[in-house]
UniProtKB/TrEMBL annotation:
GO terms for biological process: proteasome regulatory particle assembly. This is Probable 26S proteasome regulatory subunit p27. It comes from Candidozyma pseudohaemuli. The keyword Secreted does not apply. InterPro entries: Nas2_N, PDZ, PDZ_sf, PSMD9. Residues 135-200 form the PDZ domain. Residues 35-109 form the Nas2 N-terminal domain. Keywords: Chaperone. PANTHER family: 26S PROTEASOME NON-ATPASE REGULATORY SUBUNIT 9. One of its GO terms (cellular component) is cytoplasm.
């Protein structure tokens, strides 16, 4: 299947699922202002959550489940649909990383300039809290919800659940409250891994062999 045909197939699949997914041109993104980029960031996060929800509830799958057994495609899963959705999720994660990088660049410029319109100045006061890590992942249990989301040991959590960050996590109690209030629901988590910023979708659940809803140990950073 060529890239063009794969894109057409994905567009048809999304139409059937009544999900609107937009492609983002990274060169065009670099021309946008802070407010527009912030809006696109939220938009991409909504799309990611929707696609992960579709994978889980419609196709009973995630990003890790093998689609081939003994050299043959699985018969209990719509392999083509899952591959298309996974590919789009990877693309959207890259888009999200690009947008976050551009937001950080513009924020630094605004702070260095010490000026800007009222909305931009307000964003500049709030945004630093969303780029500073506030928690460190000390360990991740095997086969846990945290591991399935892609969370790794030594990841630094920057934003948890879209609104918990360095300025309001309250000694991580806000993270605990967010987890307890979203059992079985997707939570967008932004982490710093080395020099890269990653976006993960974490689903708290008690239905796994270990203890807790996440299966990871995090400490204040």
């Amino acid at each position: 299947m060529t890239i063009e045909n794969r894109d057409d197939a994905f567009a048809g699949l999304m139409k059937d699922l009544n999900i609107e997914v937009q492609d983002y041109n990274h060169n065009e993104l670099s021309k946008l202002d802070y407010q527009r980029l912030a809006g696109l960031k939220d938009e991409v996060e909504v799309l990611l959550t929707s696609l992960f929800d579709t994978l889980k509830h419609r196709y009973n799958c995630d990003m890790e489940l093998p689609l081939v057994i003994d050299g043959f495609p699985r018969s209990d899963i719509d392999v083509l649909a899952v591959r298309l959705i996974r590919t789009k999720i990877i693309r959207l994660r890259n888009d999200h990383k690009c947008i976050l990088g551009l937001l950080e660049e513009q924020l630094i410029k605004q702070l260095q300039a010490g000026s800007g319109s009222a909305p931009e100045a307000q964003s500049a006061r709030v945004a630093p809290q969303r780029i500073i890590p506030f928690a460190l992942v000390k360990s991740v249990a095997e086969s846990s919800p945290a591991q399935k989301s892609g969370l790794q040991e030594n990841d630094k959590i920057v934003v948890f659940g879209e609104d918990v960050h360095a300025g309001n996590h309250n000694k991580l109690s806000a993270v605990g409250n967010k987890v307890k209030g979203n059992v079985g629901k997707e939570i967008v988590v932004e982490v710093l891994r080395g020099q890269n910023r990653e976006t993960l979708i974490l689903t708290p659940t008690p239905d796994w062999p270990g203890q807790g809803l996440l299966g990871c140990h995090i400490v204040p950073y």
